[in-house]
């Protein structure tokens, strides 16, 4: 089955994960699939050849919902935007080209063939594959080259449901319009709708649901409620000023306020979600220098374009705010691209082609970009705040090419090699995912609170990030079981699109007042 959406961030990823969890709990072997994802939030998967590759982080989350290990075939094409005009193409986990409007038609047959082959292999291996679309299936200017929405559904004969976000408004118009803009062959695959993020009394929707059924000839399979606990791995919702999660009261007498700089080309910002699971830790994404000034801990996250985002930091005044934060003795953390920005210089002939540019000068290191991309899972020990095991993953072209002798590392690899750096209140690492380790996260936050002067902050001894993620996935499964017509969904999965779906011409007449769902 294909889960499409009226827009980006309509809820395709979470509905796909919820359906996957529901099927997994029924004993069905199930896998997620997204033919093409455009995202700088990725996860590392170790391929059959032992090498690391990348897939969209949403597909890694969906794999967890299915109770299976991530597979490169779950997201065979990943586009990682480096600018408004180009994206790095990651094909079955490996960076192979840069994509622009000029070379898309040349690359498209290879990308589509790879996606179709990957889906065929998954269908052979699993009982069910739940596919996620991208953007909207009614992007009619792109339909002739589409292989991720109804182009995929047409090629594989997939029944399709369309998810709409009612919280944005206009959900009935967008659902009708989505169907009405499709040609007859595409419409024949669209079986019905799911409304997402509803707040209030569901009975108020009945007239709209009845009319939508009358003018499209298609049912709404259910209405999913808005739920505040669905925030992990929400890659399309990293909005300015947004507080992550639902901050719970501190165990001590003080909060720890964390400001995460929302870089224009932010990458793997989900790193900071683990911090937000801790009681008394308030994590905000920001582009405001004033919020940097008020924060206890500042985080520079990953970036797909380190040099370009470093220039933006300077133009926006955030670079000065970050330096002032450090001058006041308060802690600063850089992760991957954010770590690279902290050094004295960045030598980049690969990503930006800008050559040598000045870093922020907060760590005595230099970064050089290599054409070979490091994509791997890493294991080692966190030593800066007490020796504890830590795991993570790496996705980067830059590496530390020079460092001041005696500089303390933040971590060490299993073979003893140093990783990252610590100098006074400033620390950084190339490792993503390290803060999902409970003991390392607690020790880091306790030290950050001490340095920031938050003597009343206390870390919780019992927070488990893995448990929080599992509860989120189970919640998604619960919502699907409680609010969607799972009997009808199972019938679609078993039998395909209904044979009697009517064609909906643009401008279909309104339903009669007596219409019933």
Automatic annotation (TrEMBL):
Pathway: Cofactor biosynthesis; adenosylcobalamin biosynthesis. It comes from Micromonospora zhanjiangensis. Belongs to the CobB/CobQ family. CobQ subfamily. The active site is at residues 336, 432. The keyword Ribonucleoprotein does not apply. Catalyzes amidations at positions B, D, E, and G on adenosylcobyrinic A,C-diamide. NH(2) groups are provided by glutamine, and one molecule of ATP is hydrogenolyzed for each amidation. Signal peptide: none annotated. SUPFAM superfamilies: Class I glutamine amidotransferase-like, P-loop containing nucleoside triphosphate hydrolases. The lineage of its organism: Bacteria, Bacillati, Actinomycetota, Actinomycetes, Micromonosporales. Residues 2-230 form the CobQ/CobB/MinD/ParA nucleotide binding domain. This is Cobyric acid synthase. NCBIfam families: cobQ, PRK00784.1. InterPro entries: Class_I_gatase-like, CobQ/CobB/MinD/ParA_Nub-bd_dom, CobQ_GATase1, CobQ_N, CobQ_synth, GATase_3, P-loop_NTPase. Gene3D superfamilies: 3.40.50.880, P-loop containing nucleotide triphosphate hydrolases.
């Amino acid at each position: 089955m294909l889960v499409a959406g009226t827009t980006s961030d309509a809820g395709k990823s979470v509905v796909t994960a919820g359906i996957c969890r529901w099927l997994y709990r029924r004993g069905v072997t199930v896998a997620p699939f997204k033919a093409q994802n455009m995202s700088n939030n990725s996860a590392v998967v170790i391929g059959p050849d032992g090498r690391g590759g990348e897939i969209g982080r949403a597909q890694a989350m969906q794999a967890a919902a299915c109770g299976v290990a991530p597979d490169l075939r779950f997201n065979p094409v990943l586009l990682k935007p480096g600018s408004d005009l180009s994206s790095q193409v990651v094909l079955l986990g490996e960076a192979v080209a840069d994509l622009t409007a000029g070379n898309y038609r040349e690359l498209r047959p290879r990308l589509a063939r790879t996606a179709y082959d990957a889906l065929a292999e998954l269908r052979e291996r699993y009982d069910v594959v739940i596919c996620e679309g991208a953007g909207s299936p009614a992007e009619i200017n792109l339909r002739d080259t589409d292989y991720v929405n109804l182009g995929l559904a047409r090629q594989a004969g997939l029944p399709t449901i369309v998810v709409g976000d009612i919280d944005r408004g206009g959900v009935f118009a967008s659902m009708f319009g989505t169907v009405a803009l499709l040609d007859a062959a595409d419409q024949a695959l669209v079986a019905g709708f799911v409304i997402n993020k509803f707040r209030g009394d569901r009975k108020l929707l009945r007239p709209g649901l009845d009319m939508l059924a009358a003018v499209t000839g298609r049912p709404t399979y259910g209405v999913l409620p808005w739920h505040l606990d669905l925030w992990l791995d929400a890659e399309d919702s990293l909005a300015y000023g947004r507080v992550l999660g639902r901050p719970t009261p501190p165990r001590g007498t003080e909060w720890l306020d964390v400001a995460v700089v929302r870089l224009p080309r932010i990458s793997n910002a989900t790193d900071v979600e683990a911090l937000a699971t801790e009681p008394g830790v308030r994590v905000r994404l920001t582009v405001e220098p004033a919020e940097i000034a008020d924060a206890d801990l500042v985080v520079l996250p990953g970036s797909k374009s380190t040099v370009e985002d470093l220039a933006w930091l300077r133009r926006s005044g955030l670079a000065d705010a970050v330096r002032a934060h450090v001058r006041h003795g308060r802690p600063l953390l850089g992760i991957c691209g954010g770590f690279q920005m902290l050094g004295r210089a960045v030598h980049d002939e690969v990503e930006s082609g800008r050559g040598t540019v000045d870093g922020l000068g907060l760590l005595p290191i230099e970064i050089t970009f290599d054409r070979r991309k490091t994509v791997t899972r890493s294991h080692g020990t966190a030593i800066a705040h007490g020796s504890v095991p830590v795991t993570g993953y790496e996705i980067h072209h830059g590496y530390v090419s020079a460092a001041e002798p005696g500089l303390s590392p933040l971590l060490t690899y299993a073979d003893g090699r140093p990783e990252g750096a610590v100098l006074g209140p400033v620390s950084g690492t190339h490792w993503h995912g390290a803060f999902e380790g409970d003991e390392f996260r607690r020790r880091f936050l306790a030290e950050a609170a001490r340095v920031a002067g938050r003597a009343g902050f206390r870390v919780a001894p019992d927070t488990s990030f893995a448990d929080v993620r599992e509860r989120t996935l189970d919640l998604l499964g619960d919502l699907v079981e409680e609010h969607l017509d799972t009997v009808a969904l199972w019938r679609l999965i078993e039998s395909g699109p209904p044979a009697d779906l009517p064609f909906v011409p643009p401008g279909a007449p309104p339903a009669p007042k007596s219409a019933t769902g």
